[in-house]
Design goal:
alpha+beta; four-stranded antiparallel beta sheet; flat; rotamase; coiled coil; PPIase_PpiC; chaperone
Length: 624
């Protein structure tokens, strides 16, 4: 048959088949190119909704920043695994997307007006107790958000929070569930323990066994590979003394600084939302009626408390506090800045509904003097020039190190000193050699094996180094004589633990059969009695306590249960359970309520977790 195929492969039928195959390959290849191109800016797709690379990168930076804050300023950021961090961030975004889809499917919503109030009342965005637009922009910029991006993120967080609260808050606990939990949680047990100590004196280890262990585990008894590294270090702060500032530049920066200070206006409003119960015309007419009442002398704040549909300000008489430009809806802000103090506007339409706006107060910006800002201005101007000088010097260092065969020439060209580290291994050392990026670069093939100068390494935003291996101390076998004592001690402990375990398990078997008088068998070692021990009893090894509460209830008072547990220190403990006591006191209503809230909360959290898993299992998720 194969020969027939070969013979016919030159015919017209074969050519047609080959043509069809080529066409199919071309089509599928073209489709793959289109698919690849269309997803080049996306990280994943969740039920048809895209997660962009920009969104993923921002989430990675957020998680990195949060980790660094939690771990402290001394933590080496280079120890963070970029791949794991990126996978964790993407998994979080996928789950977030699923929860948002779930919230929208359940018709959860969070109004834009409520979002405004949340932002205005957030302490992190306030200065001296009042919302500050500059502070707001500064904080969200540090988080990597623009204003629209932050509002979108905040709205999504509130929706997810509503969903979580809705599911977790629906948990409940029955009286029987409470009773069973309390019975187990408050249960006490009476037991005794007999400790069989692992005694290295009871066992022997011959020289042959020590030698055999050494040979079998020879790779464990090696000196660590170590490097001595020479390096050049470039520090940003070293450039500050080299920068000179002109007075006219300081004055220009001062004028720009004070020009950005904006007037703050304190607004109050009455909001009526347009919906299926209140039309555009009705809302406007109602506000015109309220405006007429205000013009006749009625109190604006009282009417706001009665009629305003803004939950964040109605109880405060519609007071929104002080805010600067670019905070409110453009239509709202335009009218606000046209009012005189104490004046009330006509009805104003914004994207949130219809408003009456009252200007409660105007606060002129406080203009600081030049002298109070001079130190800050000098630092800012120097920082700009230092940044440029530092970047240029870092680039010169990179180029010089690449072109040179050692560090002498780069050090001489840049006026830097060559420094040398103490020996350190792959696990790092102290000071500079504790930095994972520094260590990884030193042990990289380009530097260690090929003997090259490294490329420049940014240890932190203010420090750049270039390094070179000066000395490479390879691992060597540690002589047997130097580790024989340690091996013997290790084997003695291991054999002693095994000997006492075997002895303990044999005694446990005899105890369960009721054959062995334990006191005689242990040559005087006695039982330690523990009465009415709780699950969280202090002073008892957790392994013993856990084992005691896992044992079956004794069949009778004179027929105890027995168990054994090996401890990490090598000892073996026999446990004799003699009694199990359930709580007899009835719970007070306050106690029952406490347990009910705890179990309901736990059950609700479990329900929410199950809901998340269900979303994951039924979703169409594709990672690119």
């Amino acid at each position: 048959m194969l020969q027939n195929i070969r013979d016919n492969s030159q015919g017209w039928i074969a050519k047609i088949i080959i043509g069809v195959i080529i066409a199919l390959l071309a089509l599928t290849g073209f489709d793959a190119i289109l698919t690849s191109t269309s997803n080049s800016q996306n990280a994943a797709e969740v039920n048809g909704a895209k997660i962009g690379l920009a969104e993923l990168n921002r989430e990675v930076e957020t998680q990195r920043r949060q980790l660094l804050q939690q771990l402290g300023k001394d933590f080496d950021a280079s120890q963070l695994n970029e791949g794991l961090l990126r996978n964790a961030a993407l998994s979080g975004l996928i789950e977030r997307k699923l929860l948002l889809q779930g919230a929208k499917a359940a018709d959860f919503a969070f109004s834009q007006n409520a979002l405004d109030q949340l932002i205005l009342q957030t302490p992190e965005f306030q200065v001296d107790g009042r919302f500050d637009a500059n502070r707001f922009d500064q904080v969200i910029a540090q988080m990597g958000y623009s204003r629209p991006q932050f509002r979108q993120m905040l709205e999504q967080e509130m929706l997810i929070g509503q969903l979580r609260a809705g599911l977790a808050g629906s948990g409940f606990a029955t009286d029987r569930e409470i009773g069973d939990f309390v019975r187990l949680e408050r249960q006490t047990r009476d037991f005794s323990t007999l400790t069989l100590s692992a005694d290295p004196a009871r066992v022997t280890v011959g020289d042959e066994a020590v030698q055999a262990y050494y040979e079998e585990h020879a790779s464990s008894y090696m000196t660590s590979e170590q490097l001595v590294v020479e390096y050049i270090e470039l520090k940003r702060h070293a450039f500050f003394d080299q920068v000179e500032i002109r007075d006219k530049d300081l004055q220009a920066l001062y004028q720009r600084e004070i020009a950005n200070l904006a007037e703050q206006r304190r607004a109050a409003h009455i909001l009526l939302e347009v919906n299926d119960k209140l039309s555009e015309e009705q809302a406007k007419a109602k506000l015109e009626e309220l405006k007429a009442r205000i013009d006749k002398g009625e109190d604006f704040a009282a009417l706001a408390k009665e009629f305003s549909q803004d939950p964040g300000s109605a109880d405060k008489g519609g007071d929104l506090g002080y805010a600067g430009p670019d905070v409110y809806d453009p239509a709202f802000e335009k009218v606000l800045y046209s009012l005189k103090e104490g004046e009330v506007s006509s009805p104003v339409r914004s994207e949130f509904g219809w408003h009456l706006i009252k200007l409660l107060g105007v606060q002129a910006p406080e203009i600081p003097s030049f002298d109070t800002l001079k130190e800050k201005l000098v630092h800012e101007l120097k920082a700009e020039q230092v940044e440029q000088a530092f970047v240029e010097a870092s680039r010169d260092l990179e180029n010089a190190a690449f072109e040179a065969s050692d560090l002498s020439q780069p050090a001489q060209e840049l006026g830097l000193q060559i420094k040398v580290t103490p020996p350190f291994g792959r696990e790092g050392g102290e000071g500079l050699t504790a930095n994972r990026q520094f260590v990884q670069t030193a042990f990289s093939p380009e530097v260690l094996e090929q003997g090259n100068n490294s490329s420049s390494i940014e240890l932190d935003p203010d420090t750049v180094v270039v390094l070179r291996v000066k000395e490479h101390k390879k691992p060597e076998q540690i002589p047997f004589d130097q580790v024989a004592g340690k091996i013997r001690e290790q084997l003695l402990k291991k054999h002693a633990a095994e000997e006492v375990r075997v002895r303990g398990e044999a005694l446990l078997g005899e105890l369960r059969q009721g054959h062995t008088p334990i006191d005689q068998a242990q040559q005087g070692e006695g039982w330690h009695v523990v009465e009415a021990a709780a699950r969280n009893q202090e002073g008892i090894d957790p392994a013993i306590l856990q084992s005691a509460f896992q044992m079956p209830k004794p069949a009778a008072t004179d027929r105890p249960s027995f168990a054994g547990v090996a401890l990490p220190n090598g000892d073996y403990v026999l446990i004799r359970l003699t009694g199990v006591s359930d709580p007899s006191d009835d719970l007070s209503e306050e106690e029952k309520g406490m347990y009910r809230r705890f179990l309901a909360s736990r059950n609700g959290q479990q329900d929410f977790t199950a809901y998340r898993r269900q979303l994951q299992s039924t979703a169409d998720i594709e990672r690119f």
